[in-house]
Amino acid sequence: MKNLKRISALIVLMTFVISCACMKDKNTVSGKVEAIEFGKDGYTAKINTDKNEVYFATISIVNVGGPQNYKVLKQGDEVSLKGELWKTDTEKHIKVKEIVSVK
User: Fold this and answer.
1) What is the pLDDT of residue 15?
2) Residue span of the signal peptide, if any (predicted)?
């Protein structure tokens, strides 16, 4: 009986770890910066992914955790961004919480 409980707990733990790892990938957008539109508190970058999906990435100092994490992207940059994803009827958006890489 104890072994059954231990095995069940191990399976639950492994399922949790795997599901968390999968969610991280879903909240990441990688691609090429096609356009930049500056606003009052930051800017929106139009990102075109390898799968030809277009995301509008909202990047602000507050959302990335302060000026030390804030970067101004340029048209043509290859980027990887993490954040909160959402969709409208015709557009995909990401509120950027972390700029993972810029090339």
Assistant:
1) 66
2) 1-21
Name the domain count of the chain. 1
Task: Take residue 86 and report the two structure tokens written for it.
Answer: 């959402």
Q: How many Cβ atoms sit within 10 Å of the Cβ of residue 89?
A: 4
Say which CATH number the domain at 64 has.
2.40.50.140
CB 96 within 8 A of CB 72: no
Mean pLDDT by 10 residues, the chain (103 residues): 72 64 70 96 96 97 95 97 95 96 95
* Cα–Cα dist 48/54, whole Å: 5
Assess contact for 100 and 80: CB atoms under 8 A. yes
pLDDT at 22: 47
Q: Three-state DSSP class for 1? A: coil
Q: Where are the alpha helices (DSSP H) in the chain?
A: 2-26, 61-64
Domain region containing 55: 29-102
Q: pTM for this structure?
A: 0.74
